[in-house]
Amino acid sequence: MSDDGGLITRLPFRDTRLPVRTRVADLLARLSLDERIAMLHQFAPGVERLGLAPFRTGQEALHGVAWMGPATVFPQAVGLGATWNPELVRRVGEAVGREARAMRARDPRVGLNVWSPTVNPLRDPRWGRNEEGYAEDPCLTSALATAYTRGLRGDHPERWRTAPVLKHWLAHNNETDRDTTSSSVRPRVLHEYDLAAFRGAVRAGAVAGVMPAYNLVNGRPNHLSPYLREQLRTWTDQELVVCSDAGAPSNLVDSEHYFDSHAEAIAAALLAGVDSFTDHDQDASKTIARVRGALERGLIDASTVDTAVGRLLTMRCGLGEFDECDEPEGAAGGIDGAFDTPAHRALALEAAEQAVVLLANDGLLPLSESGVRTLAVVGPLADECKLDWYSGSLIRRSSPREALAERLGADRVVFADGLDTVRLRTEAGWVRVPDAAAEGERPVLPVRSVRPVHPVRPVRPVHPAEEGPTDEGPTGEGPADEGSLNPAHTAGRTDLPPLTVGDTPTELSLADWGGGVLTLRAPSGRYLTVADDGFVRAAAERPGGWVVQETFTLEAHRDGHLLRHMGTGGYVCVAAGALKVAERDSDAEGTVFRLEVVERGEDAVARAAARADAVVVVAGNDPHIGGRETEDRTTLALPAQQERLWRAAHAANPRTALVLTSSYPYAVGEAADALPALLWTAHGGQAAGTALARVLFGDISPAGRLPQTWYASHDDLPDLLDYDIIAARATYLYFDGAPLFPFGHGLSYTDFSYGELSVRRAAGLTVACEVTNSGPCDGDEVVQIYASAPGPSRVPLPHRRLIAHRRVRLRRGERVRLFFTVPVEDALGFWDVAHGRWTVDPGTYEIHAGASSADLRATATVTVEGPPPAPRPVLRRGLEAADYDAADGIVLVDRTKVRGDAVARRDDAVGRLLFRACDFGAGATSMTVEAARDAAAAGAGAEDDATVGVHLADGTTLATVAVPPTGGRYTYTTVRAVLPTSPTGVQDLHITLRGGLRLARLGFSG
Fold first, then answer.
1. What radius of gyration do the chain's Cα atoms show?
2. Catalytic option among 137, 194, 245, 919
């Protein structure tokens, strides 16, 4: 402010009385071009002359504030999905937003632009990041994403508590080659599945922007997605911010080779709608140089920069950054700042309780304290409270063992972790952990259901600039070096001596996480790990880090095994009496180790089970190992070691319950058949153990529901990269087989009965359903409303589709009548490729209410009147190649680098397309083919003919058109052909593609 004759003049951009657009325009005009360019990088510098502080886009907050030290840790996102409770998820988002504000008050490097939630539907349970999504269904995903972002955003009409960014735009469900693979997504799948998950939250107005994914869609990188402009920005009047994923702008040149220069790439990304560039960590110089290069070459002009910076400033203005007052509304010291409060702790417990899914129960549960004098709690996760990539550090924690021991008394709980106790021997002697690294047994912590593990202290700031690691370094020993915000830069501990060989062995605990991936733990409780110097030490509190340094494999070799360190790929050798990993490309041969099993884990489990009145086996995954960011699963099988554990426990004691604590589903059909009780919960955060104990003993009736299908085998799944859920018959929407457990499944300790269902069509569909708790105890029911089209349809429709749901708590004997209103288009519509729009075909539809997608208790019908669907007007509109009804042997590709799709054959297959109900009217006499053919890029066989064959359903050939080389894959030519046989009326049209061409469209004229 300035003093002018006693009058205070406030800079317009700081004047809260002015509209946001006016304030942003004023600030933008005050910034130099260089200052604006610098703001395009994730780490935007401050502008001292205007009093602007530095700003960073990106604060991970998927289920709690992550990577910035201690914070309340809620269940994983897939666990929140299992609650099926938007109101609860909204409260979780609110708590996370308040903690972000409170933590920022202590450290300004805690960001308020939060990169959460992940709203990619969980199309395939093998996806490494399954834990990050809410559900396989776009309706449920959208409802929960809307709730979480509303909580993060806050209720103030103008000021945002935090600014949520949805991840990852678009069609992103594979980690395998994730920056170079292309998801082939037909228009129906795009509109009905992938876009649908994003649409609801954006329209609700609680989203600040999106983050494009690493992958390509239809041959075009997501950071150039035309749908940012054609779809996303049409859903709202807000100035949405598009933040790149880490390193993705460079990928456009470096790995994807989509452009020859970074100047071209960054110009294209800006023109597509990317506003903030997360690249090269905190070093903005490369981004700045690339933008300047694009300006100098005339690829963009200053207005392109202004558009992006204007959106970023609008977001910052909404967060209150530019408000000229001592403490803007929503500041951490005001009503919005709250950290580790009793209310947050209670909410973490409530969320963990609501996330527990009872998969099967043959009367074993709930357990009775009087009937269970001794309880065996066994398994590799029985005494664990696991974190994942996007967790904060635990302030307090609760494992199943601790919670159950607190409840029953430590003397009534028998524990065995089920790990194999092993020794390793080399020719030089036994592998041993030196006394300095092994001194003291693993500390026995106080048995409390939720115990503090960190003092609540000012947050030590640790924030990576890139998506990836946790707040811990590769050893899991604590925060990253404060000199870097990226924990991927941290090094493992070297202050402990490396493992040696000698006369006395150290017994190690071996865990097999599946696929031959092992961890080895010393008696101190520390994991064997490898630091930058290559030595093997017992130094890690837990597996962790962007590249996990605590995993190994044993490879059979001569009369023993080679021990390969997975983090480096090198073999472990004995060097000067110490264990060290050889360089991967060195000629050094790994040392041969002989593994001696002192005790098998299943034997210890069997002993514990035999001593108990009941057994709880806790198995599952470590979120940092096998099925994680950068690594997809190849199987749904439970690790063999864990299979042996539940079998051993059950053989010793038939009163055995298996609890699967995991980030994803397993194929556990034999366990489901054999065991009297089976439960699943995602990693439940700080209160996971207490929540499980309360469910097991019936303090609450479980009411979690599966947010995705549990398949009987991975053989039921299509190829991981097959994104066409319609043709692949994937997800509960189209799966034709019998799942192990269906989408929406979950049992209760009580019973619910459904009364008559009614459906009324007015402005939308109004569904009324009566539900009664007819069982022995209070409990929650998740009422699920589905729609289906029972009769024949002109396009393949889902078996059933979730259109609404509600979680409702009912006392024993209580009855409630629930009402749901759903737009007709959302409930019954589909994307009509024949006319490029949403449509609802006339006919009779069924609306169902039930407890799962396979347990439908009540049904009503609704009739939609209207004219019959019109055929494709091919004489007027022609045929866009991508708008097929069915296809085989093809892949969708980018028509141009800016927008549009084309069709090419897949590999060496013959490509086939089917277009139904094409209206040729009185007859078509000629046809045009718009196609491109890059003979030089085709390589071997490029000289072969590239043809487009067109014929009718009866086999009549209309034409075979040869496509000549056009000079490039984006250079199209139009070839005209006379049709010797003139098709008339409405006909199905079949297209055959041969050779290396790209088909864009067909045209017909009479």
1. 30
2. 245
